[in-house]
Amino acid sequence: MHRIARRSFLAGLGGAALAACTTRRPAPPTADGLGAAASPTPVPPVTVDAATGPVLVPGEPLRVVVLDTDVLDSALTLGITPVGAALPAADIRFPSYWPASRVAGIHRVGLAGAPDLVAIRALRPDLILSNQARDGDRYDQLREIAPTVLTQTTGAPWKADFQVHAQALSREAAAAAFVSSYQRHANQVVQALSAAKTSGRKVSLVRFVEGGGIRLFGKQSFPGIVLSDAQVGRPDAQNIDQSDVEIPLDQIAKADGDLLLYATSGDPALAGTDAALESPGWQALGAVKAHRAFPVDDQLWFQGIGYTGANFMLAELQRFLEA
After folding, report:
1. Helices (H), the chain
2. For 182-226, what is each residue's pLDDT tens digit?
3. 215, 245 in Cβ contact below 8 A?
4. Is 46 in a helix, a strand, or coil?
5. Which SS3 state, helix, strand or coil, does residue 90 take?
6. Pairing state between β 148-151 and 127-131
7. 46-50 and 213-217 as β-strands: parallel, antiparallel, unpaired?
8. CA dihedral sign of residues 244, 234, 88, 143
9. What is the pTM of this model?
10. CB 174 within 8 A of CB 166
């Protein structure tokens, strides 16, 4: 099985979304000048309707700390390079779908769900972004450091969360441009899949999680919504209004589909990936026997949770489906 090369794919999208390219991934632009440059005149504070209630944040904050992967994608997409970021415990690096130059200056501030408050304070942020699922229990401590905007959760509500992030970052015009560009891209993928007569194929999403078992992802998840935007079908076991369900290895038949995309969070041996891929049940899957089961980047497909990640996923999906 091979990984599809991550090359430039958005030359025709134009305008607001991801136009500049590297040899592996396009580098997101700043939405036709709507990016990181601060206004020459002070921008008044903004009141953001966060999950915890109204939060007053400085206009055009520049020293931003992000404490989960969705807010990392949002900030970078909107032209803000955070001064600090927390990443999940299984991640030893920043997501590779971002060029190294875009993440080089970001300081690690501990783990998502267990950030280092001392390290955050040392960065003197003027805004902290996260969600209640990760940091609701330390919200009071965070807001003592800087204004803190939390959404309720992450994953399925990623599009609505992006609007909250954009408001907190004073990047609403740029956000609108990126949303429109993504919608155009999704429509282009739908048309390409239809023309190639591959839109009827059912796509399976499987994630092996160290300490969390084998998970099948449903429609109410970040990758599930991206697939829905591309109007591709899902296997019956995943055509559910849930984020994900955990299954034992002896039920691996539920992972089958016309196309099977799988990722690993953590060590493949400890996550059960190695055992699953060597099992008779996995080898019996139709997608495996047809050579249509592919490993994908966990940090992109399951942790990207934003418009830049989603754009790359659409392009990879189109290539996997040979459209």
Report:
1. 69-77, 100-103, 117-122, 132-135, 139-145, 158-168, 172-195, 222-229, 268-271, 273-278, 280-283, 286-289, 298-301, 307-320
2. 999 999 999 999 999 998 899 999 999 999 999 999 999 999 999
3. yes
4. strand
5. coil
6. parallel
7. unpaired
8. negative
9. 0.88
10. yes
